[in-house]
Amino acid sequence: MKTNTRRLLLALAALSLLPAGFGANANPSTSISLDTALADAHRLADTKTGLQVVRVEGESMLPYFGDGAVLVVKMLPASKLQAGMVVLYRNNFGETIAHRLVAATAGGWQAQGYNNTAADSTPVSDANLLGVVYATFHSDGRTGSQLANAALAGTPVALAAPAR
């Protein structure tokens, strides 16, 4: 099996596994560089239509993902949403947010970061939904090449941030 394919399969298999003793504020650690995580995420996104790649800044979704993580997001209509899904949406402040859905409301879905004590003020609806998290690639946050820095600069950012 080719090294890149094996690495991609291992990263996908690890998505649902969290190590024992994983703390609420611990960022998943890995020796994989941000360059590699971005490349692997783009390779996965290229296999299906409707997938996009974003990188994460923030800690509100720890221990599941935080700074240095790369997400592959799948477009999905709001009518298919369910509690517990992690979504990407644009809030009323113009920020792109990655948080989980906690409850359906009359105006859409209430979202909240795992480490936030309050829900987000902007409901998630068809009007602002960008998609659901399809895959997560963890990295050590380091990048080493000019080509990777260009890819990093061209990759949209999703905030895992305090509720606003």
Describe the overall structure:
With 164 residues, this protein is α+β, with helices and mostly antiparallel strands. It has a single domain, classed as Umud Fragment, subunit A (Ribbon). The chain has three helices and seven strands. A seven-stranded mixed sheet has the order 5-4-3-6-2-1-7, with helices on one face. Strand 4 and strand 5 form a beta hairpin. About 7% of the residues have low confidence.
What's the arrangement of strands in the largest beta sheet?
5-4-3-6-2-1-7
Largest beta-sheet details: 7 strands, mixed
Based on secondary structure, the structural category is alpha+beta
Rg, Cα atoms, Å: 15 Å
Proper CATH architecture: Ribbon
- Terminal CA distance reads 46 Å
Tell me the number of structural domains: 1
Number of strands: 7
**Helix coverage percent of residues?**
10-25%
Identify the overall geometry: globular
Return the CATH topology: Umud Fragment, subunit A
The total count of helices amounts to 3
As a percent range, the share of strand residues is 25-35%
What is the element string, with H for helices and E for strands? HHEEEEEEHE
CATH homology superfamily name: Umud Fragment, subunit A
Q: Would you state the CATH class?
A: Mainly Beta
Mean pLDDT: 84
Unreliable residue runs = 12-22
Briefly characterize the structure:
With 164 residues, the chain is of the alpha+beta class.
Give a topology summary:
Layout: H1 3-13, H2 34-45, E1 51-58, E2 70-74, E3 86-90, E4 96-105, E5 108-112, E6 129-137, H3 146-153, E7 157-160
Parallel strand pairs: 1-7
Antiparallel strand pairs: 1-2, 2-6, 3-4, 3-6, 4-5
